C-alpha cells in the first residue's frame, strides 16, 4: 500500500468504531483498488444494490437505443409516404416552410407563441443581422385550457390587441408568425388543423379545425388591430429557423421542455404527403414536423416501457397517447421520479420505509427538483435535503440522499438517451456531416447534465459530425422569421 493512501485510509478508519468497520479495513494487504473503492464509499455513498436492482428497467442499453432508432426511422418513413401517412403514428407533418432565413430580412414582425400554460406576444425588428425584441407574457387560466376554443382564441386576440396598442402600432399592418406547439395537420403555410391537444389543454371545438382561421376570426371580432397572419408553425420549426438565422448549418430543431418534438430538413422529393399545388416542387427542401412525441402508440416501444411509464400514462388526460413524449419531457419527469421513489419507500429501501404524505400525492415532486438535486456536487446534498424538507422529510441520511439522486439521474439520463436516439435517427436519415441541431426547452436548458449526456450518446449511436446549439428564443424569434421570409415572398 502506498504511504499516502494508507495514511488517508487509516484516518478514515479511526473515524469509526471497530464494529462499524468491515474486516478488510484492518487488512494492510488489501488491494489498493478495493481500498480506494472503500474510501470513496465512506466519503461518498453509492446507491445500494437493492436500489439499483429495483430501478434497472430505467437503464437502456445501446442495443435497445439502436432498436428505438430503427423503429422511429420506420415510423418517419410511414409518415412521409402518401400511402401510409393517414395511418402513421409519427405523422411527419409538412410545414410548407421551404426557405430558411438568409440574413437579409428587414422590418417589424409580430410573433405569437402558444404552447403551454403561458403564451407570449413579441414584436421583433429585424435589420439584416441586427435584432431587437419586445415581448410580454400572458397567462392562460386552467379554465380556458379546458374551456371552449372560442374563449381561448378571444383571450389570445385580446392580449394581442393590448400588446399592439401599448406600442402604439395599431394602425400599422403587422405580419405575424404564429407558433402553435400542438400537433397540426398543415395544408399550407397559413392553414393548419389541430390533430389533438397535448400538454394539459383540452379546449372544445378546436380539434379538426383550422387554428389560423380561429385566430383570424377572433381578431376580426375585435376589429381594432391590423394583423396579417403569414405563417403557422410548431415550436420545433421556430427553433430551427431561429438557429438557422445565426448558423446556416442548422437542419434539425428539437424541443425538450414541457413536451418533446423534433423537426428536420427533408428533401422535397421525399415528402410524398405534401399537397400538390401548395408548395414549390422545384425547391429542394422542406421542413418536416415529425411530431415524434406520439411514437410508441402502436406498441413499438413496449420493450422499454416500465411500470412507472404505465402509471404516468393511465393517470394522464390522454391515456395511450404521446408515449415517447411522456418518457422524455418536463411535464412528466418529476412525476416519473416520484413514482420510483414511492416504490422504493414501499419496499422499505428508502427513508426506512417512512413515507411523507406529500410524496404520495401526484404532481408534488416537481421536474425542477430533478435538476436541482442533480446539481448538487458529488457527496453534497444541500439541494436534496432542502427539497426533501419541503416534502416533509428531515434528518435524512447521506445514503438516502444518494439514492434519491440516483433515481433522479436515471429518469433524466433515460430522457436524454431517448432524445439522443431520436436525433441520431434523423442524422442517419439526412446522411450529412456538420449538421447543427438547434435545441430549446426548459429540460435541456436547465438540467445540469442534459447537453453532455446527449453529446456523448449521439456520438455513440451514429457516425456523422454534428453540433448541439442552444436556441435563443426559438419559438418567438423563429415565428417572426417565418413571417419575415413569407412576407418577402408575397
Describe the structure in your own words:
The radius of gyration is 25 Å and the shape is globular. The protein is built from 17 helices and 13 strands. A hairpin with a 2-residue loop joins strand 6 (184-188) and strand 7 (191-194). With 490 residues, it is of the alpha/beta class. Helix 11 (330-346) crosses helix 14, helix 12 (367-374) packs antiparallel against helix 13 and helix 14 packs across helix 16 (450-461). A six-stranded mixed sheet has the order 1-11-10-9-12-13, with helices on both faces.
Instruction: Find the structural class using helix and strand composition.
Output: alpha/beta
The profile of the biggest β sheet is: 6 strands, mixed
Approximately what portion of the residues adopt beta-strand conformation?
15-25%
Number of distinct helices: 17
State the strand order across the main sheet. Answer: 1-11-10-9-12-13
Strand element count: 13
Helix content: 40-55%
* Gap between N and C termini: 78 Å
Radius of gyration: 25 Å
Low-pLDDT parts are 1-42
